[in-house]
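User: Can you fold this complex?
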Amino acid sequence: MAGNQINRLSGKGLVDHGKTVSFQFDGEAFSGHPGDTLASALLANGVRLVGRSFKYHRPRGILTAGSEEPNALVELRTGARREPNTRATTIELYDGLDATSQNRWPSLKLDVLSVNQLATPIFGAGFYYKTFMWPAAFWEKLYEPMIRRAAGLGYPSKLSDPDHYEKSNAFCDVLVIGSGAAGLSAALAAAKAGARVILCEEDFELGGRLLAESDEIDGKPAQEWARAAAAELESLPDCRIMRRTTVFGAYDGGVYGAVERVSDHLPVPPEHAPRQRLWRIVAKQSVVCAGGIERPILFGNNDRPGVMLAGAVRTYVNRFGVAPGRTAVVFADNHDALRTATDLAAAGVAVRAIVDPRPQASAAAEQVAGEAGALYIRGGIENVRGALGIKSVRVKDAQGGTKEFDCDLLATSGGWNPALNLTTHLGGKPAWDSALSCLVPGEDLPPGMQVAGAAAGQFSLQACLASGEAAGAEAAKHCGFSPSALRRPAPAQDRAPATPVWYVENSRGKAFVDFQNDVAVSDVKLAAREGFRVPDHVKRYTTLGMATDQGKTSNLNGAAILAEATGRYLGAVGSTTFRPPYTPVALGALAGHHRGKDFRPTRLAPSHRWAEEQGAVFVEVGAWMRALMYPKPGEAAQETVNREVSNTRTNVGVCDVSTLGKIDVQGPDAGELLNRVYINAFAKLPVGKARYGLMLREDGFAMDDGTTARLAEDHFYMTTTTANALKVSQHLEFCQQVLWPELDVQTVSATEQWAQYAVAGPKARKVIEALLDAGQDISNDAFPYMACGKFTVCGGTPARIFRLSFSGELAYEIGVPARYGDALIRAIIKAGAEHGIAPYGTEALGVMRIEKGHAAGPELNGQTTAHDLGLGKMASTKKDFIGRFMGEREALNEAGRAAMVGLKPLNPKTRIASGSHLVKRDAQATGANDEGYVTSMAYSPELETFIALAMLSNGPARMGEVVKVCDPLRGNETLAEVCSAHFVDPEGGRLRV
Amino acid sequence: MRINCPYCGARGLEEFTYRGDATVKRPESIEESARDAWVDYVYLRDNPAGLHKELWHHGAGCHSWLEVTRNTVTHEITAVELAAKGR
Amino acid sequence: MPILSIRKEGGSVSNLESTSALHGFATPGRYGKRDGEAGVTASERKNLGLATVVARKGQEAALKTAIQGAYGADLPDGSRSAVGKGVRFIGIGPGQWFAVSESLANEALADELATKLQGIASVADHSSGRAVMRIEGPAARDVLAKGLMIDLDPRVFVDGAAATSTLSHMGVLLWRDGNAYDVALFRSVGGSFWGWLRDSGAAFGLEFVTTS
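Assistant: Here's the predicted assembly.
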């Protein structure tokens, strides 16, 4: 009911009591105040039950007040913006917020699947391993669907996310992570010294625990000090404060990943604003001030709604002005938690008892209890009553007597652990501090990282302020700045020895360690009995710490139980390894701008716009979009390809070949470099001529091929396949810089500079002649096959023309500076109109090259040698070249190797699928009989049959033999005749007219 | 990871491609007697836990091949040089 | 049809009309946030002469002397630029420079450099292969930071500084000219670059203007 915030402490806390915002939870309307989280607003409204647990569907409430929350996971928002597994403790309340509890059916209060907990013995440690090992088929059909229905978290929206995400980069001298007492002090010290500082805070308010405690700094309330410090930082020009920003990972080289929740606190992102922004922050120094995470003491039914960490209770009271209960019991083994009793009492909450499990009575605790009007009992919690929310607790005292307290809140604390996750992301190991009874950051911190405040085990307020200031100043000093003298002296050693109590022996019911993954004390003990000794192994066996919270509130308790169960010292047991991200990061944020059509940059060829106008169908080739074909209305795809091929073979066609890699090779040693990278000779190629070349890898296998033209004595122009352009560039640079730096040769990519079109077909010359400026001759005598030269076309446009042919027809490739590419394709089409010119796409190009038996990508597949491609004779025997020695190994030149041949199906209408395997005509289609495979297939309109290229064992010697082509994926087998790969014009007469 | 390119300055890993051991040397001979040297050069690599001299290509930057001395255990980079220098 | 008009650009005569890399993608106007001053202004610097100059083996000193003599610029030894008479030379790698010129437009720059540097450097024309976008305005750095992993703090990336890097997975050469940033991108990614710029600039208000 809106307006009925029964647990709101009027006038208390930092929320804006003057304003009210409305929200819904599970369809019910509630209200809260600006400054609330969903968790604090639910508690203000008396809602304690917020979810069901992962495995047993146990009712769960709110355990913490921060990002470590294991229980209170909800589905936030609705429709396309629905986001599962968001932590109610970090969701900033906004007007209209709509959240739903998850993992329950049919309703939160009545969950049918909670019968899972009756089957607890089955779901114990190692349940998955033990139960579902066999038979394998049961996994898919039975176990997995069953588990998925029974266990799980929330459901994502299956609709496309309507919001956008972006990435950004930032650089700084000092990155401060966390804005509590330590973080603010560190940022101030570094920024005032002149360093460029970035301060990241995962919360929407700066201050950390200062917001949650009734502390004083310099005689003023701590919140006031935090506000003043924040204001001072805001006023410094080189300090960037990033609220709602979680630094989730530390990476090599001072790189930090952070996610900024730009619009998560709003119903929808403002116009032009992203929902979230992923930051890559490069910092010379960092100061981790991530604070501490409180740990619970475990006892039977400790997961019931109403059981809350003591520090979280103070957060709700002091920061949010909410009483998480009306009658409370405090169960803690440390001095810090006593403040909870004091603060609760001050807020008017009845504190029934302070239960202290330590062996020795504490005078301080007794005094606090007295002041708070509570009983002080040495003992433990034996059981909790109230499934949907606690109604009472039973306390067993040190003498064995029991006493039942009615209460709706149990505040528990087993001490604090430093939030040291970021310190271990690069492999550093935390160290056990026996005085503090917690893991503290170890010696092997990531380079440039310091840790201060509670994250470093400096838990007292004075220690946080002093260590933060010292670390900030030190970080600035490392960046070359001179910080002024430290203002705050480090306090005297305040490491009060702790006597940690991890769990209550012999309490009733399941005592949970990992709330999110439903791992109980008994599961860890069972794992220990079964021989597990290493925390990382126990983690995998029991799933302890494997949930979305990575065990922030459970890992150390788990390790402690393991240590005890295996009779070892806790410090020697160690801990599991923390890995990024610190808290879950949305995939959308990791993708940023790069989704949908923006997944990666698209390269468009010079004729792209024109091709679009012609209705071309495009295909991705690497990052390029190439025209696949130019269908006419009503034409089927095969008809289009046949028409484009036939028209090129009878009239003339044009194809954009600008996407081929083009490399400008200059210098006196250009020819020598080419000699060393191609298997055939180039140094003596005459100026004005082009030559086909094949490159090998150093292991003797083919890498790439293409034609290279000599434009001048010291100037070659190399082409590569579209897909390998970058690889070949890199290869040439390797040869120049690493292998043969003595060569005087310079290479630079020219791919983007030239728009290049292949004009092919019997009438190609007429088209090119129409474009040429007067006085230039490209007749067969003046400009024969494989000639190249510089010309001008279309009234002075500089052009390079190459008489090359991939199609097998009379052909020219004409290149002009790319900015004329669009105009040139239009000019070619216009000039060719009277000759019946038509554009052809890569599909037709592929058909023609298969008809000609030219190897391409499918044949240059990394497993073929020059010999296999039928190009072995091209290799020079007079020079060393890359791949020569290893390429000459016997096994790479055996006749029995699969080598390239053509295939014609006995029935010309039978399609041969690429990837099919070849066996002897009468052999079974088994691996043992395998003799090769089909690399490329096409329908040849000229031969009126399907044809294919294949790699066949001893192929060239088997012309005329019939082999069986097996396509086991589609269940097809067909017979085909082995033939020469040169299906069309094998003598190449058409090229030379 | 960031590599301090001698020409461009410190840049993110994304700008570089890895090739491997920088100490192997391409044999000059193509005689049969060089077979072992070729097999070593093409296939055999040490896999040290610790300092490793390796080649990286700054393909998104100055296109230099770099000789990077990296600790394979910590990823700490102690030296970066242009591969063309000293060859 | 383009063929009808005769244009004179940078010395060469062509009756083919040239097309900008952003043609058909970016039309002049205001994008994203509409109120207030545009946070970022973008324009394409068309018809620039662009060329790479790579010193031949052992000719670096001779090349520097030649450039100093011809253009009054000291070729820089690092990733930054030197502005000479009509030509800016930007270091892009050891012994390699990228030359940019307004006055020697299009092919004219590469033609002149090739002639003047015969035998001491290899020159390649890039006037058609790259588009140069000028990004300026109070939010220029914030916009660029969304794609570029380069520290653009004005104290670090000073006037004339340059970087060869990637911007949103596209290879770019970036240099600072006063308070403006010039980004040379590959011609084929003009559309993708524009998509990135439009999205990244939207929050600040992006003005795309044409220049002659």
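Chain C is about 20% helix and 35% strand. The mean pLDDT of chain C is 93.
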